[in-house]
Amino acid sequence: MSSANALLANHQNLAPSDGELYLLQAFYPASIADNYLQSLLHSLAWQTEQIHIYGRWVPVPRLMAWYGDPDADYRYSGVDHQPLPWTTELQTLRTDVETVCRQAFNSVLANLYRDGRDSMGCHADNEKELGPNPQIASLSFGETRLLRFRHARIRTTLNIELSHGDLLIMAGELQHHWRHELPKTRQAKQARINLTFRRIVSTPNSPARSAAR
Ligand SMILES: O=C(O)CCC(=O)C(=O)O
Ligand SMILES: [Fe+2]
């Protein structure tokens, strides 16, 4: 995608190997990002999800909401998720990221980290439904948080700060070779919303998403 997509050609690939990672800082300027943060906080159907680990259901340490086309259902942590219908605002955001990514997205996973005690465990977005080399567009609003990438074989980590209005694009073979996590931190006092736009290409009886996140 890097060379094929002229819009991203000016951006450095932050992944040293085995995939593509582009950070478009302040993709939305602060004043526009402020509005999105406030309205998404209030308008999305935030829920506490439970995941099944070692025979027990435990709440994930963040709030989540899943939106998309009706057929873009997604198996996540062993639970089939039917998407909620797109809101006007999410459709606008989707169009903006589609223009940059030159790809259609049919779903978005929204995460709300209320403060630094909320987090996401180490995982790769490598579910079958996403296809072999998914392009995922991730928008951040609110508190700055660290997204840490760890290579699966070589001992390399890559720390990426995601701030208000940033767009991060993960593409190529990244999900085969790198895992990522959003660690807890004492520094973060404010809320952060992250939206990951995805394209679900099929809905086979794929295995449950890794439960450790
Ligand atoms: O909050 C983030 O930046 C990461 C979200 C993420 O990795 C995911 O939704 O799969
Ligand atoms: Fe992810």
Structure write-up:
15% of the residues lie in helices and 37% in strands. The protein is α+β, with helices and mostly antiparallel strands. It has one domain (6-45, 57-198): Jelly Rolls, CATH 2.60.120. The strands form three sheets. Strands 1-11-8-13-6-3-2 form a seven-stranded antiparallel sheet. It has a four-stranded antiparallel sheet with strand order 7-12-9-10. Mean pLDDT is 91; it is low at 206-212. The chain binds 2-oxoglutaric acid and fe (ii) ion. Fe (ii) ion (FE2) binds next to loops.
Sketch the major β-sheet: 7 strands, antiparallel
| C-alpha-based Rg, rounded | 16 Å
CATH architecture: Sandwich
Structural class: alpha+beta
Protein name: 2OG-Fe(II) oxygenase
Pfam families: 2OG-FeII_Oxy_2 (PF13532)
InterPro entries: AlkB-like, AlkB-like_sf, ALKBH3, Oxoglu/Fe-dep_dioxygenase_dom
GO molecular function, one term: metal ion binding
Task: Give a quick set of tags describing it.
213 residues, alpha+beta, Jelly Rolls, four-stranded antiparallel sheet, 3 helices, 37% strand, binds fe (ii) ion
Secondary-structure blueprint:
Blueprint: E1 20-24, H1 30-43, E2 47-53, E3 56-68, E4 74-76, E5 79-81, H2 88-101, E6 107-113, E7 120-123, E8 136-142, E9 145-151, E10 157-162, E11 167-171, H3 174-177, E12 178-182, E13 192-198
Antiparallel strand pairs: 1-11, 2-3, 3-6, 4-5, 6-13, 7-12, 8-11, 8-13, 9-10, 9-12
The protein binds 2-oxoglutaric acid and fe (ii) ion.
2-oxoglutaric acid is lined by residues 109, 111, 120, 125, 138, 147, 162, 180, 182, 194, 196.
